[in-house]
Structure formats: structure tokens, C-alpha cells
Amino acid sequence: MLGRDFLAGLFPRTIAVVTVFALLSTADARAEEADAETPQAASAAPDRTPAEVDAFLGRYAPPPVEGPALRLPFTPTGLYLDATYASTDDLSVLPFIAGKAHNVRLAAGGALRWGRFAFTGELVFEQITSIAITEILNSPMNLFPEDAHQTAYALGDLRLGVDWTEHVTPSVVAGLSLRGRFPTHTTAYQFHQQDTSIAVYRFPYFFHIEPTGILGAAVGPFTFVVNQGALVLMGPDGDFGGMHFVEPTIAFWDAHYAASYAILDALAASLEVVTDVQLNHVSDLNFQRLNGVRSVWLAPAVQLHLGDWRVDGVARFGVTRGAELFGVIEYAGTRSFMLRVSRTL
Predict the structure, then answer these.
(1) Domain limits at 177?
(2) Does an H or E element contain 52, and which?
(3) Is it the case that residue 196 has pLDDT exceeding 80?
(4) Is it the case that residue 333 has pLDDT exceeding 80?
(5) Residue 12 has what pLDDT?
(6) What is the mean pLDDT of residues 327-338?
(7) Is residue 183 part of a domain?
């Protein structure tokens, strides 16, 4: 059941978002009437056509950053490489271990545009994760000194998705997206047991299902993007040190509010606010900290355009305590810094 606090907070935000885009739509309609009725309008600079709005959104929209990433109103065909550094000070949301971690993530991805559809994919082809374990929780195992600090070199997760968007006015775009994340990562650590045998610990393997609604607009030098949708995490059970744990299904309401400003033709800046509110209750004792999670993130970014090439620098900061917990199960940390190089084809 959805909590009253969540519903009370969701409806005002939804009304505010709809109101903003309704005003934009009304402005478009009034502009069209002015073009038809006012003689001076013919000599004024014309508004952007839908194709020009798409091009502007595809060029200057805020960059998606992992955890989970923003879905855009228009994604052009292209390829990208990115490098991300992330860190967290609290791993205790995971079953059995407590400590800190930092991670370097190298990924390649791209999009294929087909009419009003965009097919997207990304693979983390190198993930270097270092952990500093302070305690093994809810287990008879002891923490040996040689196990406290470990680094794993692994394959990361695969992401596949499809977006569909359409113009509701010349400057406003709306649509739907469905994305999945597949736990192809191979991150694992070894811990010694009292009988000298080795126990292998793997970070929980969650499948992600992410249906989302998309709104976007281009007004003057500004772009605006809003996502509202669900994030459902589910996964197979796991074992560690003779202990069996059942991975719960966890549902969140994921919302993104982002805007960018094209300072120059080759330079733009953006800010994204992300909220994730847990929708269900987890009864498993190993995941009790994953209850009542309410996370808020800020992601300021700058983008540099060099012809068909684009360079993005993005910082991501958790604002609430819930962001620390949510960032661990998302493999995004509490703080992250991403450099992305992309090319439109």
C-alpha cells in the first residue's frame, strides 16, 4: 500500500509539473494565434519548428547520469564512452557486510533513432571496486585482517531500453520509456572462514524494470526534462559463508527534474534533481535498512560541443541519508563524478 505521506507529496509535485507544461502549451497556442492575426508577426523571428526543437533537445538536454539515468525527450543516434568515479561511506544496507567502498566504472553505450523511437543500450565493460570492510554482520564468520581491504576487477551491468516520444505542441514533447537493467556484473570478494575454507561474497544481483513517463520542452536557450515512473528491483537469492539470503523485491517511485541553459553555441550548463521514494515494505531481516527510503540527489553538469562531438562533466551528490542507502543498491555510490565523450552519428 502507498503511504499517505508519499501520496500527499506526489500529487502537488505532479500538479506543478502538469501546470508548467500546460502553460508552455498555452504559450505555443497563443503564439500561433498571434502569427495568424497580427500583421507584424510575419516580420518577427519565427518560432522553432518541431524538427528544430528535436535538434535543440538532442544537442543541449542534460546528460543522463547513472543511478538511475534520466530518459530524454529526444535522443539522437550516437555512441559514447564514459568514465565514472563513485564512493560511499556505508555498505551496511547490503546483507552481512559493513564498511566503505569506491568504484571506477568504464562504460560504452549508444542509441539508434528510428522515427519517434530511440533504442538505447549500455554495457559497463570494466568495474574496479575497492572495499574497506569494518564488520561482518549477522554471521558467525570473523573478519580476518587480510579480508578487510579488497579490490575486484569485474564486468558491470547491461542496460537496454526503448523510448517513444511525440510532440504535443511545437515546443513540448511527451512520451513513454521502458528500460531494463540486467545483472551481468561479476563483482565478487573472498573471505576466509575459521576452517580455512573460502567464502565468496557477491554483491546482490538485482534485475531492474523501469517504466517511465517523459516530458520535455525547449524554450529559448533553455531545455526542460521531467521523468516520472517506477523502479522495481528483483533478483535471485544468494549464499555467503553457509548463510542463505533471499533477495526481496523493492519498488520505488523515481522522479527527475532537469533543466539546461545554452550559454554559447558550444557551451551549456544543467542541473538535475532526482528523488526516489520507496513504495513497499521489505520484511527480510537482512534488508531491514531498505525500508522507508527517501533519497534526494543533485547533479550539476557542464557540456562542451565540438561539431558532432560532445563532452560532459557531471557531478552527482546525495542530499539525504536515503541517498546513501539507495546509491549502494544502485551501484552508484553517494557521490560520483562522470566524464562522458559522445558523438552524434
Answers:
(1) 48-344
(2) helix 50-60
(3) no
(4) yes
(5) 43
(6) 93
(7) yes
* C-alpha cell recorded at residue 197: 575454507
Residue % of the chain over a pLDDT of 70: 84
pLDDT at 7 over 90: no
> Which residues, 6 or more positions from 82, have their beta carbon under 8 angstroms from its beta carbon?
106, 107, 109, 312, 338, 339, 340, 341
Task: Say how far apart CA 81 and CA 184 lie, in whole Å.
Answer: 19
- The Cα 230–Cα 156 span in angstroms is 23
User: Does 183 sit behind a cis peptide bond, omega within 30 degrees of 0 on the bond before it?
Assistant: no
Nearest alpha carbon to residue 154 among 229, 117, 103: 103
* Residue 243 near residue 284, CB atoms below 8 Å: no
- Look at the block and give the residue holding cell 535471485: 236
pTM comes to: 0.84
- Pairing type for strands 78-88 and 335-344 reads antiparallel
Calpha distance 82→61 (Å, rounded)? 17
Q: Which of 21-25, 175-179, 241-245, 270-274 has the lowest mean pLDDT?
A: 21-25
What is the residue-wise DSSP string for 274-327?
EEEEE-S----GGGTTSSS-EEEEEEEEEEEEETTEEEEEEEEEE-SHHHHHHH
CATH number reported for the structural domain that contains residue 226 in this entry: 2.40.128.130
pLDDT of residue 289: 85
Q: Is residue 181 part of a domain?
A: yes
Query: Which residue is listed with cell 522507508?
Result: 292
Quote the pLDDT of residue 36: 43
Report how many domains make up the chain. Answer: 1
Distance in angstroms (rounded) separating the CA atoms of residues 310 and 16: 32
